[in-house]
Amino acid sequence: MGETQSRAPLDSENDVELYTSPWVSGTRAAAYFGPISSELFLQDDQVEDRSEAWSKAERELLESLRDKARLLGANAVVGLEITLDPFAQLPESAATGLRLHAVGTAAKLEPLF
User: What total number of domains does the chain contain?
Assistant: First the structure.
């Protein structure tokens, strides 16, 4: 069987890793930059295939979160939570659609060893 790696892959300076856990085995947090979030809304009338739209929107949402973390000097987002509201309504209109929201803590992780 293949061996699973529990340490964070922190080799790339430009890549921001995403973790649902608030801590990452084999690392320590050198700095926390605070909470960051990103949100997307796809109107129903613009979505033909909800599954495909969800996949594309999720990629865009997470890349937006990574961009925000990079700007702060982070190499990770920990404690990531993603919420999906398939019946969302825009506050100032009657438009309904798919709302995605991601929130986590931007951090600079360093390997322990």
Answer: 1
Backbone phi, psi, residue 61, to 5°: -60, -50
pTM (2 d.p.): 0.79
Domain membership of residue 101 (yes or no) is yes
- Please state the φ and ψ torsions of residue 94, each to the nearest 5 degrees: -90, 5
Expressed in angstroms, the distance from the first to the final Cα of the chain is 25
Q: What is the pLDDT of residues 45-90, one digit of tens each?
A: 766 776 777 788 889 999 999 999 999 999 999 999 999 888 888 8
Residue 75 is part of a domain; what is its CATH number?
3.30.110
Output the DSSP codes for 12-28.
-SS--EE-SSSS-TTEE
Both tokens of residue 16? 């921001």
DSSP letter, residue 44: G
Q: Is 29 helix (H, G, I), strand (E, B) or coil?
A: strand
pLDDT at residue 44, rounded to an integer: 76
- Give me the domain span that covers residue 102: 36-111
Residue of 28, 35, 36 whose CA lies nearest to 8: 28
